[in-house]
Design goal:
The complex is a heterodimer of chains A (127) and B (270). With 127 residues, chain A is mostly helical. Chain A is 80% helix and 0% strand. Helix content of chain B is 74%, strand content 6%. In chain B, a hairpin with a 4-residue loop joins strand 1 and strand 2. Chain B has 270 residues and is mainly alpha-helical. The chains are: A mainly alpha (127), B mainly alpha (270). At the A-B interface, helix 1, helix 2, helix 4 and helix 5 of A face helix 3, helix 4, strand 1, helix 8 and helix 9 of B.
């Protein structure tokens, strides 16, 4: 039985991929949740925290809001939301790196294909 | 936006996140009706908020599941090639449709999900494909059975097709799509239920992110609503994972199938 388990583990050298993707997700979630929570906390203490109905429609719009002093609470919330939206993108890159370390070229290609679709969609959306 | 409004979104997110985690779903099917009917949000904004919440629960859950080695990362990455394509198509289509049309389509989805939930609770999980009989071999430790579960995947093209459909529904309606992917992985591909649920959860973050930027570009992402709801859903999903160990999920599936059926009827006459 013990010997069988060793054999299975030899077939499953997943460690770098698991380590990199898990770490990326954990960091992404906690950082974004931190930004969003801090933004909400500040907004609840600011009487003029209202932004109205218009929201930025591009990453550039969000960045200009972040840099132009368009309200620290809103900027922090946007930073958190953007960070969260980008986490899966970075996770795909992290998996690709893990597969690269494992020299699994087939899955490096699969990850690259997924990332290309995601990046292509971003460029198409905000062109 | 006022403090009571933040609390409403936070509490709503927590409740729907808990229910979603209890039933092994992303929670979008419960969150969107809450945002539309209780909070009065327009349909497109509710979908955008749900997509952000789905990314949050998927990322947090996947990090935990990767640690437990229940996620089949290679299977997830392969299925993402079709699910991302479907999600992009769904996100683009959604922004061409009116809120009323989307509400009607969502009502049909809820009807289908409620039937699927009852059907799934009556079905066995399907036979697991032996380790050396399929592709993308993997194994994980099942603490409940106290054994190492080794398996492989069969009929990969068929589940890639289901993933395309699930991605499309996700981008169009802001749900995770696990309700389609998990049964497909267990029944068609012979993946053990724990690995299928974990792998589906791992995938839905990328699926949701694919359409999230489309909704952002149309100005549907409200930072106040998205932040309060996402944090609530995150808290709820942690609560749900804890509670799931003590609660009979079959009973819950029947109760919430009934709730979804009622919400679906309400949306038809909206």
């Amino acid at each position: 039985m013990e010997r069988d388990r060793h054999t299975l583990k030899e077939h499953l050298p997943d460690r770098p991929v698991e380590r990199w993707t898990g770490l990326t997700l954990r960091i992404g979630v906690w950082c974004s949740a931190g930004f969003m929570a801090a933004g909400l906390l500040l907004a609840s203490r600011t009487p003029s925290g209202e932004t109205g109905d218009a929201f930025p429609r591009s990453p550039e719009g969000v960045l200009s809001l972040l840099t132009s002093g368009g309200g620290i609470p809103v900027s922090m919330m946007y930073a958190g939301v953007l960070l969260l939206m980008l986490t899966p993108f970075v996770r795909v890159l992290a998996a690709m790196l893990g597969f690269l370390i494992e020299k699994d070229t087939k899955f490096v290609t699969v990850s690259l294909l997924v990332f290309t679709m995601l990046a292509g969609e971003l460029v198409f959306t905000f062109r | 936006m006022t403090l009571p409004a933040y609390l409403l979104f936070f509490v709503g997110g927590t409740v729907t996140g808990t229910i979603g985690a209890l039933l092994g779903l992303g929670g979008g099917v419960f969150l969107i009706p809450f945002l539309v009917f209780v909070c009065g949000l327009p349909m497109h904004q509710a979908i955008a908020t749900s997509i952000i919440a789905v990314i949050a629960t998927s990322s947090a859950g996947a990090a935990m599941n990767i640690e437990r080695r229940t996620v089949n990362i290679r299977l997830g990455m392969l299925l993402e090639t079709t699910t991302v394509a479907g999600a992009i198509l769904g996100g683009l289509t959604a922004n061409l449709l009116s809120g009323e049309t989307l509400t009607r389509i969502f009502a049909i989805l809820l009807l289908g999900v409620s039937v699927l939930m009852v059907w799934r609770s009556k079905q066995s999980d399907g036979a697991v494909t032996p380790f050396d009989e399929g592709l993308l071999q993997a194994s994980f430790r099942d603490p409940a059975a106290d054994e190492e579960v080794a398996y492989s995947v069969r009929r990969v093209p068929a589940i890639m097709g289901v993933s395309l459909l699930a991605g499309n529904v996700s981008g169009l309606l802001g749900v995770g799509g696990g309700i389609f992917k998990v049964p497909a992985m267990t029944m068609i591909a012979g993946v053990p239920i724990k690995a299928a649920t974990a792998t589906s959860n791992f995938m839905i973050g990328v699926t949701a992110a694919a359409s999230a930027f489309i909704y952002l570009s149309y100005g549907h992402v409200n930072p106040f609503v998205a932040s309060a709801t996402a944090i609530g859903v995150l808290a709820g999903s942690f609560l749900g994972i804890k509670a799931a160990q003590r609660i009979q999920s079959i009973v819950l599936a029947w109760i919430f199938a009934g709730v979804l059926l009622l919400v679906s009827l309400r949306m038809f006459i909206f």
